[in-house]
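User: tokens in, sequence out, please.
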């Protein structure tokens, strides 16, 4: 009897344990499914949504990583770097030296690489973001950091001064590189690669200049001139929307589709300025305005003598290549003996303009576009302009592309003729008049006060399938009247390049 009762009790206990286990597992599964649904819902929320839900108790450690870490890629890059560096040195020397000549600052007659070595330290990829913004393309943003040990020596020569070797030490690069892969159905499945630097966050290039067997004081303002040159090349050739197109194959049509094209024309009338800062000890400043969208193609107004409230009423036409990212830059200078002094600068994003509609705008002048570096933040006055943006039709785009090389060559002729010291100089009325002798188009404005030149310029370098570049960008340049010819204007872009001198 005891044996039977024990067996029955054991069976009942076993059944109860099994039923309890099943209930517990079912309840746990339901809770896990419910939590998974909640987590999935939370994962779709953005940081602002979570802040609304959590209020002041929102934990700061919650992050939304946009870039994925690629430690494995950094390991492979370190192994491949000696071979990549050797190939890159050849390509950089062949492609960058012509740019140094084109963007060579006034006062310098030669600017070339005396030595170029990228060193043994490979760049580090902090993260990669992959997007599919357009069908048939893969867009990859690469967060790149490089604090390497390159050995870069520039040979700089000026009139009546022997060549001075300048070394770039402690070079550091912080930027986000955008690579666009154009897909195809033929092996290797990629027909072209587009490479550019994103404008936001701004590319940062930091270095120290050191003279090798000479002195930086032999060329006054040399550090600023090299900084301006580096900044102009980065912003005008590599920073988005400008890009380098690397063809992989012989499909010319695809390559042309990827190249940068003009999207519109901006007509700018410089009307007047008010309450400018006086930079003169005796008398008043002699202001003029430098206007550009791209640093390579600048134009400027005539000089108004001894006036802090000048009136110009001069019109220029500039070409826009990407309305969403490009801006109109206006710099007011005081003409002086030697280097002209900047009175103020203003920036107008093109995306704020409505197409086919004229608008008068009053811009407040700032000491610099990067106000974080400026201690003197006093008022610099205002600049009043009138703008009209016209979007190109397809036929107008084709016309611009046909004229781009011709207009860029004409600017080079002005440089060779000594009318301008560098291709980055702003063109004034006298330069436009000389330019008309080599094919430029000039039109009189007002009572023969000046000229307006219109045209397009392009920079392109053909490169082979073995890894060389090819890029194309275009713009327009026009010139206002001036009382002197061949005057040069310094390039001042702020916030992207930092230099130190030793």
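Assistant: Sequence out:
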């Amino acid at each position: 009897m005891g044996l039977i009762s024990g067996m029955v009790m054991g069976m009942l206990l076993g059944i109860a344990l099994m039923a309890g286990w099943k209930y517990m597992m079912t309840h746990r599964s339901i809770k896990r499914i419910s939590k998974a649904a909640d987590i999935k819902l939370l994962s779709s929320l953005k940081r602002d949504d979570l802040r609304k839900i959590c209020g002041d108790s929102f934990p700061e450690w919650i992050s939304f990583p946009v870039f994925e870490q690629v430690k494995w890629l950094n390991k492979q890059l370190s192994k491949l770097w000696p071979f990549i560096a050797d190939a890159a040195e050849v390509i950089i020397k062949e492609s960058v030296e012509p740019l140094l000549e084109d963007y060579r600052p006034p006062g310098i007659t030669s600017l070339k690489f005396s030595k170029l070595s990228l060193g043994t330290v490979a760049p580090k990829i902090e993260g990669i973001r992959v997007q599919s913004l357009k069908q048939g393309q893969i867009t990859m943003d690469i967060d790149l950091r490089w604090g390497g040990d390159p050995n870069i020596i520039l040979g700089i020569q000026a009139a009546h001064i022997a060549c001075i070797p300048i070394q770039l030490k402690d070079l550091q690069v912080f930027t986000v590189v955008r690579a666009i892969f154009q897909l195809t159905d033929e092996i290797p499945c990629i027909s072209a690669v587009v490479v550019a630097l994103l404008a936001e966050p701004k590319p940062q290039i930091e270095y120290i200049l050191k003279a090798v067997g000479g002195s930086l004081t032999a060329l006054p303002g040399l550090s600023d001139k090299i900084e301006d040159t580096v900044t102009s090349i980065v912003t005008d050739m590599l920073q988005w929307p400008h890009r380098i197109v690397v063809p992989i194959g012989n499909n010319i049509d695809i390559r042309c589709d990827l190249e940068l094209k003009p999207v519109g024309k901006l007509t700018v009338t410089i009307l007047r300025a008010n309450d400018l800062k006086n930079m003169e000890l005796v008398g008043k400043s002699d202001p003029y305005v430098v206007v550009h969208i791209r640093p390579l193609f600048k134009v400027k107004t005539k000089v108004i003598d001894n006036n802090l409230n000048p009136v110009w009423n001069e019109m220029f036409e500039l070409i826009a290549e990407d309305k969403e990212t490009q801006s109109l830059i206006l710099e007011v200078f005081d003409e002086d003996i030697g280097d002209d002094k900047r009175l103020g600068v203003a920036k107008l994003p093109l995306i704020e303009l409505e197409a086919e509609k004229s608008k008068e705008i009053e811009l407040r002048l700032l000491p610099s576009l990067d106000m974080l570096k400026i201690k003197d933040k006093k008022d610099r006055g205002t600049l009043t302009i009138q703008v009209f943006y016209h979007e190109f039709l397809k036929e107008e785009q084709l016309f611009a592309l046909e004229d781009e090389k011709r207009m860029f060559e004409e600017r080079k002729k002005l440089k060779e003729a000594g009318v301008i010291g560098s291709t980055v100089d702003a063109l004034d009325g006298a330069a436009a008049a000389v330019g008309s002798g080599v094919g430029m188009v000039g039109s009189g404005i007002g009572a023969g006060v000046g000229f307006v030149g219109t045209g397009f310029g392009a920079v392109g370098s053909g490169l082979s399938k073995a890894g060389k570049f090819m890029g194309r960008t275009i713009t327009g340049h026009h010139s206002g009247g001036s009382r002197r010819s061949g005057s040069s204007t310094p390039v001042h872009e702020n916030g992207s390049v930092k230099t130190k001198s030793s």
